[in-house]
Design a protein that fits this description.
Helix content is about 65%, strand content about 0%. It has a 5-stranded antiparallel beta sheet with strand order 3-7-6-5-4, with helices on both faces.
Length: about 1250
């Protein structure tokens, strides 16, 4: 080049400061001036729209830039822009870019705006936006606007006013012929005749043939010389290697001799230190050399040991020396045995003392002898040990001596081998030198003979080495030929690969276009789907109408709609007496919460336990009524009234059914149970009637204060509100945490994408620079692949995909109810998502491995050679025939053995292959089984974790729940219940008509969840509730599965959904209850007769003979007392139901008559007595029905309407005489209730009421005589 890029840049002058031109513009302009191409140099090696590449100075290129001839053009940028615009051909992409950017001026345009404008005006803009962006970025005249990087503009608009005017005045495409040399500038060629052309071709062919022959001869000589040189070099190298190896071996042997010499000296030093003399060691060495390595010098070794003082037995100590040792026993006697201190005259003691002295001395002698023996034994052992150590030292010395002798011999051998190799090496070098000098001379007979002698000498020297060298050269030649063939094959394969690459490139381009179209369509569909999702959920009825209309419009079934089909709900199984089963479940749920407070048995926490008690109709049912009845008699439940207090006072085992009826009647609840209790004995009621009565009582118990039911409800409601607030706060905190994690992961993904994009850009720039350098050097380069230029769009695509599920978490938002909150599902880690995407990309880009085809093995034939198939010798030559037959038999046997061995080997290989296949199959099956087990384990662990979470949540809900709430409703407003009455292995359905159904299998519940549509308000909530509890529901179904598999158990279970008929009993609880109730009524009547008899006795006046009226009264009182005693006897004797009812009414009439007499005035009593004596009827001025009553208003008996009546406690406290009934209505109501058709419990209740009212009156009369 005549000009460097820096020189070109220097000619442009400084840029205006106010324009703030792009920093990359000068560099791009310099590159453009050097390359001089309209299209990017990396894209188009062939010049189409721009000038030819810049040539060295002096070649006469008028259109080249940056040469010495174009100084005038380079001084003005306006000429450059005009020339660049003139060279642009219409219809090209650069022409379109220049036209649009020239029109936009300094403001510039975005790539999207350029695409839209070009499409409207019908201009060519390439295949897609990436091609347009690549063209703009590769052309130095197109730069980014400094203040708005997203806009492109022409560089001249940033270089000052003159350059701007020149750019506006430029006319793109005004140079139609384009750059190039002027045509017709070459010299005219001479026209040749046919003869001249043939002669010229023959001469050319002759010269080519001669040249080829010379070249072949020269090549053959060169090849032969090269082969000879290689052989000589290989021989020399082999000899040098042997010399090095021998020298190395000699050094190793020298080191080995030194090592063994050192070891021998060390062994000698140790032996001398142990007491062995050097002369003895030398004698042992001499004898070893004489006898050889295998024989040991035993005599010399024994002598050495003896001289060292360690022979067998060895020198030892005498007994006297041993006894002189410090540890030897002492001969001294104790002081008491040294001198006799006793009585000298006592001879017996003296003799005993002497004997003791003698025994002690003998003992000392024995101990000294034993010590001597022990020490001698120890000394012998020590001597033997020292002798063994000395022998070992001598043996080590002898071994080291032998090793040293062997090392010296090996050292001598190594020296001889090295000397021989050196002599052979000198002779080989001399021979090769003489052969090389002889090869330089002219080849004649004398030289050929000398060369043959040298060859024979070389063969004698090297022998096999020469043949090996020639074989190696031949092998190398074959390798070179194979390499040439491979090179030719490689070129052919490269050409094929280039062709396939071009085809694949076109296919990839088409695939990219299809992928971009599919991606755009997917984005549009996703956007439409998100926009549609925003309007849901809506009312289920409106959703049904909308989806059915959409299906009808598309002509498909509703369950074929996409993406969310509208399926029919699965039909559940009907339940016989379903409403009754629901009431039982409600009772069980009530007892589950308040049973412990009411003192109810724990077996009633399930519907089955409730059903068992109701069907049993025994004492347990009576106790259950009592537990529910006591809280309902509180003032806070039944109200503050005189009748309620009376019911509480008269409550007993005989009266409780009627008390239940009265309470339920007063509160207007109980349905059929109230009517049945008034008509039949409680034992004859149906289970449904009992259930209604119990359910009504349980509802009334909720207001009980004394039994802590209402306070418990308030406490649970407060706890539920607190739990709801806590869950909402936890949900909000979890959402914030998830959002923070998502934002962090999004930033990380963004950084990773930016890094990858930067790496791709750097890689493209490096490729571009390499291509430009190769083009500048005149090398041929391949077209650049555009596959990587479209990767920048992935960022926006991935960003768009990240927003697909923006509203996914809205389904989990907490609702108003505590149970309707939804736990957020944990999202997978973002790192795992990134790894999954990377793995997927790698898998897509990964090319399939080429299978290496193994060539089939050639099967051996095991056929006889041709000369052994048939005998072709002389038939009379018996010896030859016998030899042929022997060889034939021998070869046949060999072939047969070989065939058997081959077949055995093949069978063995086949068995091995089958075994390998079997092992591989077993391995794969084991791996699949392990994967399956691992998947099942993970699924079970996940389900177990979800179940624990559900159970924890359900336990929290149960701790604050009052009654079971339904899960929700479907599109038909059917209500769904679960976990009612302690039954978790069933999903109950209640329709709008009150009929009940049930789902009893996992598949039914799964089909139900699939059919529920989340776009409906009701079904959305129901589906969320089912989804939250699905793991627990499935676990309960699996637990109940063995029972359902048994047909008998299944039939029994389904039959248990209704009520089985109770078997008749010999003495039912109902009959026993009736008898007890009649006995209680008789007891109440007996008590009243006793009270009345006492009251009559209290009214008897004092006896006086002077007063005949008093005598008459006394007689009357005796008659009344006799009457009451007779009535009492009749009451005791009454057995029939009707008799008890009549006696009860008769008793009330008698008591009422007594009440009238008690409250009668003296005048009226005298008038009545006078009328009676006269035999006339007494007529009062007032009607009997109106005395001492205020009115007949039936509402006056209620406490709130009669505040002037005293209470029961006030009547007892004052002790005054009060009437039995307070109002006519009260008496009339009582008498109407006493009927022959009334149950015995009703009669007992009415008798108790009469006893409660009349007992106060009779006791007061007895206490207050008139």
């Amino acid at each position: 080049m005549s000009e460097t890029p820096s020189g070109v840049i220097a000619q442009q002058g400084p840029l205006p400061m106010e324009e703030d031109a792009d920093a990359a513009a000068p560099v791009k302009r310099a590159a453009d001036e050097v390359v001089g191409d309209d299209e990017p140099s990396a894209k188009k090696p062939k010049q189409e729209d721009g000038p030819d590449p810049v040539k060295p100075a002096g070649e006469g290129d008028d259109d080249g830039l940056g040469t010495d001839d174009d100084d005038d053009d380079d001084d003005e940028p306006k000429d450059d822009i005009k020339r660049f615009a003139a060279r642009l051909r219409p219809g090209t992409l650069k022409h379109t870019c220049f036209v649009l950017l020239q029109r936009a001026g300094r403001d510039g345009m975005e790539t999207n705006a350029m695409l839209e404008t070009a499409e409207k005006e019908g201009l060519y803009v390439g295949k897609n936006r990436n091609v347009l962006t690549t063209t703009l970025s590769h052309e130095p005249w197109f730069v980014h606007k400094p203040d708005v990087k997203s806009h492109w503009c022409i560089r001249s608009f940033l270089e000052g006013p003159e350059a701007t005017e020149a750019c506006l005045a430029a006319k793109p495409g005004s140079e139609p012929a384009g750059p190039g040399r002027a045509k017709g500038s070459g010299k005219p060629r001479k026209t040749l005749t046919a003869e001249e052309k043939m002669a010229q071709a023959a001469e050319k062919a002759k010269k080519a043939t001669e040249k080829a022959a010379q070249s072949a001869a020269s090549t053959a000589a060169k090849v032969q010389a090269k082969i000879e040189a290689k052989i000589h070099a290989q021989l020399t190298k082999g000899n040098d290697d042997r010399l090095k190896k021998a020298a190395k071996q000699l050094a190793a042997e020298t080191a080995n001799v030194a090592k063994h010499q050192t070891a021998l000296e060390a062994a000698e030093a140790k032996a001398v230190a142990a007491g062995v003399a050097k002369e003895d060691l030398e004698k042992c060495a001499e004898e070893t050399n004489k006898k050889g390595a295998k024989a040991k010098p035993a005599k010399a070794i024994a002598a050495a040991k003896a001289n060292a003082g360690a022979g067998p037995g060895g020198p030892g100590k005498s007994a006297t020396e041993i006894l002189k040792e410090p540890g030897a026993p002492s001969t001294e006697l104790p002081e008491r045995l040294t001198i006799y201190t006793g009585d000298q005259g006592d001879r017996h003691k003296l003799m005993a003392w002497k004997k003791e002295v003698d025994k002690f001395k003998e003992k000392i002698e024995r101990e000294r002898d034993a010590y001597v023996q022990k020490r001698r034994k120890q000394l012998r052992a020590e001597n033997a040990k020292e002798g063994a150590a000395t022998g070992k030292l001598i043996a080590d010395y002898i071994k080291c001596f032998e090793n040293l002798e062997k090392a010296k011999i090996n050292h001598f051998k190594a020296e001889e081998i090295l000397r021989h190799l050196k002599e052979k090496s000198e002779l080989l070098k001399e021979t090769l030198h003489m052969k090389a000098e002889l090869a330089k001379e002219k080849l004649d007979a004398k030289n050929a003979k000398a060369m043959a002698k040298l060859e024979a000498k070389l063969a004698k020297l090297e022998g096999e080495k020469m043949d090996e060298a020639k074989a190696a050269i031949e092998k190398e030649r074959i390798k070179e030929m194979a390499k040439a063939e491979r090179e030719a094959q490689r070129k052919a394969e490269k050409a094929e690969r280039d062709r396939v690459k071009e085809e694949e490139k076109a296919a990839r381009a088409a695939a990219r276009e299809a992928e971009f179209a599919a991606r755009r369509k997917q984005k549009e569909d996703a956007k439409k789907a998100r926009q549609r999702e925003l309007k849901y959920p809506i009312d289920d009825d409106a959703l049904r109408t909308e989806l059915l209309a959409e299906a009808a419009e598309k002509g498909i079934k509703p369950e074929e709609l996409t993406p969310h089909p509208y399926r029919e709900l699965p039909k559940p199984t009907p339940i016989a007496d379903g409403a009754l089963v629901a009431d039982e479940a409600a009772l069980a749920d009530f007892f589950e919460v308040f049973g412990e407070t009411l003192g109810v048995s724990a077996t009633l926490n399930t519907a089955e336990g409730v059903r068992k008690v109701i069907v049993g109709c025994g004492k347990e049912l009576m106790d259950l009524y009592g537990c529910l009845l006591r809280p309902t008699l509180e003032v806070s439940v039944v109200g503050k009234s005189r009748n309620a207090a009376r019911w509480k006072r008269i409550l007993s085992d005989a009266t409780w059914p009627e008390v239940v009826r009265q309470v339920l009647k007063r509160k207007k609840c109980g349905k059929t149970g109230v009517e049945a209790l008034g008509k039949r004995p409680w034992g004859d009621l149906s289970p449904g009637e009992h259930t209604h009565a119990l359910l009504a009582l349980s509802d009334l118990c909720l207001n009980s204060v004394e039994y802590q039911i209402k306070p418990m409800i308030d406490t649970r409601m407060a706890a539920a509100h607190k739990l709801k607030s806590q869950r909402i706060n936890d949900y909000i905190a979890d959402c914030q945490r998830r959002k923070a994690i998502e934002n962090k992961a999004k930033e990380k993904r963004k950084a990773i994408r930016a890094k990858k994009a930067a790496e791709r850009r750097a890689e493209r720039e490096a490729k571009k620079a390499a291509r430009e350098a190769a083009l500048a050097a005149g090398q041929k380069v391949e077209d650049e692949d555009d596959d990587d230029e479209d990767d920048d769009d992935d960022e926006s695509d991935e960003e768009g995909d990240g927003n697909m599920d923006m509203d996914a978490d809205m389904d989990d938002a907490p609702d108003v109810d505590v149970k309707e909150e939804d736990e957020p599902e944990p999202e997978p880690a973002e790192e795992e998502k990134t790894k999954a995407k990377a793995a997927k990309k790698a898998e897509l880009k990964k090319e399939p491995k080429k299978e290496v085809k193994k060539e089939p093995e050639v099967e051996p034939t095991f056929e006889l050679p041709a000369h052994l198939v048939a005998y072709d010798g002389h038939p009379d030559d018996r010896k030859a025939l016998m030899a042929w037959r022997a060889e034939h038999n021998r070869v046949s046997q060999q072939l047969e053995n070989a065939r058997r061995e081959y077949e055995k080997k093949k069978r063995s290989e086949a068995r091995k292959i089958l075994e390998r296949e079997k092992m591989e199959r077993m391995r794969k099956e084991e791996e699949e089984e392990q994967k399956r087990l691992e998947a099942e384990r993970l699924e079970k662990a996940k389900e177990m974790e979800a179940r624990k979470k559900e159970e924890k949540r359900m336990k929290e809900d149960a701790d604050v729940a009052v009654r079971v709430r339904p899960l929700g409703q479907d599109r038909d407003r059917n209500t769904y219940w679960w976990d009612i009455g302690g039954v978790k292995a069933a999903l109950y359905v209640e329709d709008i008509n009150g009929k009940w159904f049930v789902y009893t299998t996992r598949q039914e519940v799964k089909d139900l969840m699939d059919a529920l549509h989340h776009w409906g308000v009701r079904e959305r909530k129901l589906k969320q509730e089912l989804k939250r509890r699905i793991h627990t529901i499935n676990a309960q179904f699996r637990r109940e599965a063995p029972e359902r598999e048994d047909a008998a158990a299944d039939a029994a279970r389904r039959a248990a959904s209704g009520y089985p008929k109770r078997e008749p009993r010999e003495c039912s609880a109902a009959a026993t209850g009736e008898n007890d109730a009649l006995a209680a009524a008789r007891r109440f009547m007996e008590a009243l007769c006793t009270y009345a008899e006492a009251a009559v006795g209290a009214r008897r006046p004092k006896k006086s003979a002077e007063d005949p009226a008093a005598a008459a009264t006394d007689t009357q009182s005796d008659a009344d007392a006799q009457h009451w005693r007779a009535f009492k006897g009749r009451a005791c004797a009454a057995e029939a139901h009707q008799d008890v009812a009549h006696l009860l009414l008769e008793l009330e009439d008698a008591l009422y008559a007594m009440q009238k007499i008690e409250f009668m005035s003296a005048e009226e009593m005298e008038a009545r007595a006078a009328a009676k004596e006269a035999g006339e009827d007494y007529e009062s001025e007032e009607s009997d029905a109106d005395d001492d009553f205020d009115d007949d208003d039936e509402d006056l008996w209620e406490e709130e309407n009669q505040p002037f009546h005293e209470s029961y406690e006030d009547k007892i406290r004052t002790g005054m005489i009060y009437p039995i009934w307070d109002t006519h209505f009260e008496r009339r109501t009582w008498r109407e209730a006493v009927s022959e058709r009334s149950p015995a419990t009703a009669l007992a209740f009415q008798a108790a009421c009469l006893e409660d009212c009349a007992a106060i009156f009779l006791k007061a009369v007895a206490r207050h005589p008139r």
